[in-house]
User: What shape does this take?
Amino acid sequence: MSKSDPISKRDIQSYANGAFKPHGKIEFWTEGHVVRIEAQGPFNREAIQAVGLAMQELFAGTPPTCAFADILEIRRSIMISPEALEAFSLFLARMSINKSAPTAVAYVVAAEVEGRSLVLPLLAKLYAKHGRQFAAFETMAPAEAWVRERLSAAR
Assistant: This one.
């Protein structure tokens, strides 16, 4: 990805191809070296699988040529089914194999978001297992600063 990437928003509903609909709303786009994601749960396995297909298309069109990061802003609920969590782990593993893993991942999840205290520790373990730098914040400004520091250190 380069700084001149056009903003092209994608929605996981366009990538749903199974018998069940994805639960949750997930949209993402690129801004320079950052993949921005806005999501609202709860999430099921089909939502995670749709994200995988969408990201595969994103990186096919703009393969990462340098360090990049993800900033995910979660609203309303971060609850995730056990099957979706397992699918997410597989997704992270595939990203590592395909060399499309972000340098750093920041979650912005306000205190009132359903499931925050339950799900964030599970996600932290998954990201650590797959060798990613991960941090969670309640507001956007510190998340953006943390990501900038990580990207600067990776260059």
Summary: Residues 1-6 have pLDDT under 50 and may be disordered. Helices lie at 45-61, 82-97, 116-129, 140-154. The CA atoms of residues 76 and 113 lie 5 Å apart.
